[in-house]
Amino acid sequence: MSRRQRRRIPKGKKEENSSYEEVLEGLDRIQNRMKREVKSKVVKSRSYFNIFIILAVVVVISSIGIGVLFPTIPQNSSSNKSSESTGENPSTDTLKLIFQDLDSTNFNLIQYRGQHIILDFMGTYCEPCAKQIEILKEFTEQYPYVVIISASSEDITHLATYKTQNKISWKIVKDIYSVSTTLQITYIPTIIHFSPEYTETHRNVGLTDVETLSSWVS
Q1: Stated pTM of the model
Q2: I need a labelling partner for 184 at 20 to 30 A (CA). Which of 17, 52, 95, 127 fits?
Q3: Distances (CA, A) of 14 to 5, 18, 24, 153, 195
Q4: What is the mean pLDDT of the segment spanning 62-85?
């Protein structure tokens, strides 16, 4: 074919094709951008979902608190039981029964050796524990010479507020060194009596009435 016989694309046709290609390129760019945005949103959605799950777990753990470690005994439960020491328990002298006072100082329970000690494992969120506090108020009026200590794993500031609000006259301490584990406490409230010889002689799981407490120290 000679040079003269070659077909020439009209100028207007070239411009039309060029415009069409530009439109296609623009559509491709828009499509790619939309794909990236969709992918980004999916990633963000998954991240938000993961964060939501983590927060939900934290809230559940916080609301349960130490109740997971120390389930409360229903006040009318028939599982409340009392036991007396049979001499099979390890000597208390060998145990480190160290608590933290509300002023953040530590003390060993052995410093009260020579006196009757009532050790009350409790929780501020526990309704039976609140009733046990009222029983202990009545008991301490009759036996002011008995050392009473209420112990919990909760925050010291919270325990101090609880002590003030409930007008508690005896020590409330933080079980910072897991004495509850050492003494195998599984439910609250649990009351333990230590004799003046500093040995565990009585233990009761659930509410302990004034008559029972009196019999322990008489």
Answers
A1: 0.63
A2: 127
A3: 19, 6, 15, 83, 107
A4: 48
For the chain, the residue count is: 218
> Quick one: CA dihedral 35, 38, 41, 45, positive or negative?
negative
CATH 3.40.30.10 fits 81-217, yes or no: yes
pLDDT of residue 23: 65
Give residue-wise pLDDT tens across range 72-83.
Answer: 554 444 344 444
- Among residues 97, 114, 115, the alpha carbon closest in space to that of 106 is found at 97
* Pair of tokens at residue 111: 């410093």
Give every CB contact of residue 159 below 8 A, 6+ residues apart in sequence: 102, 124, 152, 172, 173, 174
Partnered with residue 172 across adjacent β-strands are 150
For 64-87, b/e burial (b = at least 16 CB within 10 A) is eebeeebebbeeeeeebeeeebee
Copy the structure tokens of residue 40. Answer: 């980004």
Nearest CA to 69 among 205, 149, 175, 187?
187
Residue with tokens 């499509």: 31
Residue type, 160: A
Q: Which helix (H) or strand (E) holds 98?
A: strand 98-100
Give the percent of the chain with pLDDT over 70: 61
